[in-house]
Amino acid sequence: MAPERETRERAVLGATAAPRPRNRLDQPKPTRRRLLPEWDPEAFGRFSERIARFLGTGRFIVWMTVVVVVWVLWNVFAPRDLRFDNYPFIFLTLMLSLQASYAAPLILLAQNRQDDRDRVNLEQDRKQNERSIADTEYLTREIASLRVGLGEVATRDWIRSELQDLIRELEDRRPDGRVVFPSERPRGRDTDDL
What we know:
By secondary structure, the chain is mostly helical. It has helices spanning 2-13, 41-55, 58-77, 90-151, 156-171. The chain is elongated.
């Protein structure tokens, strides 16, 4: 009776299925077999960029022209039993279509990768420009504060004029001990004659 009661309790609780083994989080998952082959997207992207660069060169156009001319000449002037593509050149058309059908996606993939690189470079340039602007604004504020601060600092000319005034005061002392202040001193050309 106890096993029947246990199955009834499991059915009531919704635990009729066998417990699944729990995955451990401290260990990597076991590798699974895949039906499709795996490839490194970066390696495939680099390969497609090399092909796209080659397709965009004059060398490719020259080689393509040579292949087409040799193909046509062979199928026109070779003995009949050695020709593999007669006059309407259907096989040549198929080969050129196949080449174009592979070239277009490879070129698009290469362009997408270049767009991604350009986007990253543009973002880095934008951040660098922001930092440069912030640095320039900071230096501008610092220079302005230095100019304001220099307005309150004694300059060499001011100190020199103060010292000259003190020297004159000392020279202008009268024998009776009284000091002649600059406001009491006569001004003009004749002051040196006194």
